């Protein structure tokens, strides 16, 4: 894989990464917001944020943009991948309507349906 092709992958912490598909302006704002929430959580509680807490925060903010008439809805899909000491590898997907769920495998992008069809056949091998 060419490292220059990974333009939308960011490291939030040493154990949480985020990949954002969508408009670049919305993408940058959402990544900065996630980094701010992570640092604020560390400052308040003295330990790193759990990925499901960060996912819920991102989903809440995205819903505010969707419901408010004075703000433009974000056109982004977030994939958060984390390694937790207790729960192991965790993958979450957040869409622009505040829908978020954990996944074993996940896809996002232009050929999402084709990849989903392929993964449905192979999901037993992944679990």
Question: How does this structure look, described?
Answer:
By secondary structure, the protein is of the alpha+beta class. The chain has helices at residues 24-45, 51-67, 112-126, and strands spanning 9-11, 16-22, 76-84, 88-94, 100-103. It has a five-stranded antiparallel beta sheet. It is globular. It starts with 8 loop residues before the first strand and ends with a helix.
Quick synopsis:
The chain is α+β, with helices and mostly antiparallel strands.
Layout of SSEs?
Blueprint: E1 9-11, E2 16-22, H1 24-45, H2 51-67, E3 76-84, E4 88-94, E5 100-103, H3 112-126
Antiparallel strand pairs: 1-2, 2-3, 3-4, 4-5
Continuous helix count: 3
Write down the overall geometry: globular
Strand order of the largest sheet: 1-2-3-4-5
Beta strands, count? 5
Which range best describes the helical content: under 10%, 10-25%, 25-40%, 40-55%, 55-70% or over 70%?
40-55%
Structural class of the helix and strand makeup? Answer: alpha+beta
- Mean pLDDT comes to 81
Beta-strand percentage? 15-25%
Distance between the termini: 25 Å
What is the N-to-C succession of helices and strands? EEHHEEEH
Largest beta-sheet characterization: 5 strands, antiparallel
C-alpha Rg, in Å? Answer: 15 Å
Quaternary organisation: single chain
As residue ranges, the low-confidence spans are none
């Amino acid at each position: 894989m060419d490292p220059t092709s990974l333009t939308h992958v960011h490291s939030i912490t040493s154990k949480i990464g985020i990949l954002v598909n969508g408009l670049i302006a919305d993408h940058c704002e959402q990544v900065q917001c996630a980094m701010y929430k992570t640092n604020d959580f560390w400052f308040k509680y003295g330990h790193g944020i759990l990925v499901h807490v960060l996912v819920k925060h991102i989903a809440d903010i995205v819903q505010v943009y969707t419901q408010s008439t004075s703000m433009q809805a974000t056109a982004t899909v977030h994939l958060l991948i984390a390694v937790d000491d207790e729960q192991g590898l965790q993958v979450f997907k957040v869409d622009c309507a505040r829908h978020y769920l954990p996944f074993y495998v996940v896809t996002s992008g232009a050929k999402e349906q084709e990849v989903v069809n392929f993964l449905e056949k192979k999901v037993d091998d992944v679990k």
